[in-house]
Amino acid sequence: MKINHIAQLQPTPTAVVLAFVQDDNFENQLQQCCSTYALNIDFVKQDFTADVKEFQIFYTADNQKVICLGLGKAPKSIDIIKAFRTLFFKLKNKLPDGVTIDIQHLPTEWTEFVVTGSTLGGYNIDLYKTEKKEISPIFKKDGILNILSTHEHTEASIRRGKEIAKTQMKIFDLMNAPANKKTPQTLANWALESGKKFDYSVNILEQQQLKSQKLEALLAVGQGSEHPPVLIVMEYKSPNAKQKIGLVGKGVTFDTGGISIKSSTNMHLMKSDMGGAAAVLGTIELAAKLKLPLHLIGVIPACENAVDGKSFKPSDVIGSYSGKTIEIIDTDAEGRIILADGLSYLVKNFQPDTMIDLATLTGSCVATLGYHAAGLFTNNDELAQNLTNAGDKTGERLWRLPLWDVYKEDISSDIADVRNFSGKPMAGAISATKFLEVFTENHPNWAHLDIAGTAFGDTEFAPQRAGTAFGVRLLLDFLENL
Ligand code: BES
Ligand code: ZN
Ligand code: ZN
User: Fold this and answer.
1) Interhelix angle for 77-91 vs 111-120, to 10°?
2) From the CB of 428, is ligand 1 less than 6 Å away?
3) DSSP one-letter code for 239
4) Which residues pair with 375 in a beta bridge?
5) Ligand 1 centre from 365 Cα, in Å?
6) Which atom of ligand 1 is nearest to 334's Cα?
7) Contact in structure between 218 and 301 (CB atoms under 8 Å)
8) Which domains does the chain show, CATH number per domain?
9) What is the pTM of this model?
10) What are the phi and psi torsion angles at 15 (to 5°)?
11) Are the C-beta atoms of residues 421 and 326 closer than 8 Å to each other?
């Protein structure tokens, strides 16, 4: 699909999409649009009230298709994206190969969201079906989406909206890929290819280097798998960078739980246990594409948590990159173990000004916040506020949970420096974060996001759960407002 900016309605027949907000201006705007497109306002008003995601198709006297799309009251960016995604997802087979979205009466900032949503509507989840559905005309190579607007900067907003959607769809694919098609090396290759394409550097530490550099925590979790662990280090540096931001993402390509094996119900969902890694990959790719004036470092410890004679076991005491020792109580609490190495690798080698890690870390966080917000943990109020604002703005919401030192007891070990689980079914998301904190060298500007409930969600676009790319738009917004 090509996306063009047009400043005037073209005579060529295309379907036209008009979106409306349910506010005091609604009647007026409807009136104007109806007169532009020669529709009978009385009929339109009967059938269309601009409820969120409502859409209605009308035909003009000369047989042009006009689709009215509702955005509800005071829509936020995510509502606009979802409304357009739903429209294009549901109608894609009924659309011609040319569609014009008339956004002249909408705020200029919405252009990006309109484009992102429309593009995402074409996402196909049938990655491994042998009989592919025929691509709808509008989403084929020569399908054309015209954005009718007289706003300034429309072109730039179109590009931005499109690039965001393109990266998000690559992340969906990565999240939705099953364990037999996705190993630590797959994540490494993704980073290498992206780095080559968008001009940032990627360095992969493979098993030998992990051993010589003593990333013993990552090695321990990965030792039961046929697919060796890797540490992916990505670096994007703009010549105008004033700040150095480090991102760490949990990249467990499949989490069986290890010897502390998970029950089989829903174990298949653990192909998504690399949601933190996916968010970091997507954010760095977009930052490089959009040339943000920053110095960004992405660190992804990637491995598979498998069951095998060689697997690490409960009671093992392992070393780590930081030099601290860890007593393993539960091998299913593996995310925090590999993040320990990821975080200390980042702090020691890069000394970032700000450090954020993302991980599908705990079932406890899902129990607390469900699918509608990720857990936010930090001791820095300003960072908490900035991240929360970015979450509210992008609709990738965060809710802060405490990090008081009283929870430190949960991870104290008799025989090692720390243990990886309290053994108690309480405050699991918090004690997991207290564990991570041990490996941050008291970094004053660190936040942890537990995205276990939000990375792989229930959406209307797939009957079963699917990747959401949660974190990408959130971090992009956060980074742009630094
Ligand atoms: N990957 C899981 C957490 C998870 C749960 C992600 C549900 C997405 C959805 C993590 O590695 C895990 O198994 N955590 C355990 C830790 C426990 C054994 C201390 C959990 O939360 O139950
Ligand atoms: Zn686990
Ligand atoms: Zn896990």
Assistant:
1) 40
2) yes
3) T
4) 399, 450
5) 9
6) 11
7) yes
8) 2-150 (3.40.220.10), 166-480 (3.40.630.10)
9) 0.98
10) -75, 145
11) no
Report the candidate in 283, 201, 277, 196 with the shortest Cα–Cα distance to residue 235: 201
Amino acid at 201: S
Amino acid at 435: F
Mean pLDDT by 10 residues, the chain (482 residues): 93 89 95 94 95 94 92 97 97 94 96 98 94 92 96 95 98 98 98 98 98 99 98 98 98 98 97 99 98 98 98 99 98 99 98 98 98 98 98 98 97 98 96 98 98 94 93 98 96
Task: Tell me phi and psi for residue 201, to 5 degrees.
Answer: -95, 145
Catalytic-role residue among 65, 250, 336, 419: 336
Residue nearest to atom 9 of ligand 1 (CA): 452
- What tokens were used for 308? 């095998």
Tokens 């790319």 locate to 469
Residue 272 CA, ligand 2 centroid: distance in Å: 11
| Residues 468, 158: Cα–Cα separation, whole Å | 21
Q: For residue 419, how far is its CA from the centre of ligand 2 (angstroms)?
A: 15
Nearest by Cα to 477 from 400, 393, 397, 398: 393
Does the annotation mark 336 as catalytic? Answer: yes
